[in-house]
Structure formats: structure tokens, C-alpha cells
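for the writeup, i need someone to sanity check this before i put it in the appendix. the sequnce is what the collaborator sent (i think, or maybe the updated version? ugh). structure was predicted straight from it, no edits. if anything looks off just tell me and ill rerun, i have time this weekend
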Amino acid sequence: MNITIRRLDADAAAASIEALADVLIDCVEGGASVSFMLPLPRAKAVAFWRDVAAGVARDERVLLVAEDAAGRIVGTVQMITALPDNQPHRADIAKMLVHRQARRSGIAQRLMEAIDTAARDAGKSVLVLDTVSGGDAERLYERAGWQRVGAVPQYALMPNGDLCGTTFFYKHLTLSGA
């Protein structure tokens, strides 16, 4: 699959809200526990991405997308940089999503490699994230060099309302010149 990974600026993020909402809705409908419950109304997905685009405009988030050969957004990941003053070296990675039709083609791995690069470029040396315990993403993060911190049983809900555990990870990055 011919995939391009691209960082969206504020204007591109705002212009991509509908396409990003499509990916989010697909992932939630596919059972991804990414903060939303079924059914996920389109208006709620669009409102979420409007907030993300506003965060990009305020330099509080970095938003990456994976686009197929036709320019369709098939994946995304975010880096949240708006953290307390005593954590300027750290960022949270969030909402790593790949449309079900595009999975198993290396897109998630490429998005994670690109977010590592974006983090280094932003001077971030510690990254953290969380994911559903036992899911495919957990294995992806381990393969990508993330360190498992631990799991909290019954931490969140799956989109269908079932309880699920959450596993927390961190990754230390070496910054150029460090």
C-alpha cells in the first residue's frame, strides 16, 4: 500500500475534520476503546476533531495523518505537548487510529516512527501512552521499543460498555546533540 505520512498544520487540520471523523467512527465501530462509546454520533466525532484542530492551532498538539495513494486519510496519531511547566521534555501520544480497511499494512508502525521524529524535533525526550490491555496496539508499541509500565484492570470501557484494562507505556528518546 502506497502511504504518505504527513504533519497537518492548523489549516490542514481544520480542512481534514470530516475525513478524521470517518477514521474515528470506523475505529469505534470496530471496537477500539479510544474514549468513545457506541453509537458514536458523527456530530460528536466532528466536535472532537474540531477541538484537536484548535489544539494544533494553539501549538498544543501535533497531528499526523497517513494518506493512501488517492489522498484519503486512513490513519492518524497525535502528540499532546500542552503539559505542566515542570514537564517541558515530555509529551503524551494519543489517538493512534488506523481505518479497518487499511490495517495490517504497516501504517501504525510508520505513524509511530513519524511521531518519534516529531517528538525529537520538538525536543521531547520522554513519551507516554496508554492502550487497551491485550490488544494489537499493545504488541505494536512493544515492537516499537516502548516500555510497559503496568496495567490497571477495569480502567475504561470498550465502546460496547464492557470493562477493559489499560496498559501504560513510556519511551525515552535520544535527542540529537544529547
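The mean pLDDT is 97. The beta strands are 4-8, 61-67, 73-80, 90-98, 126-132, 147-157, 163-172.
thx in advance!!
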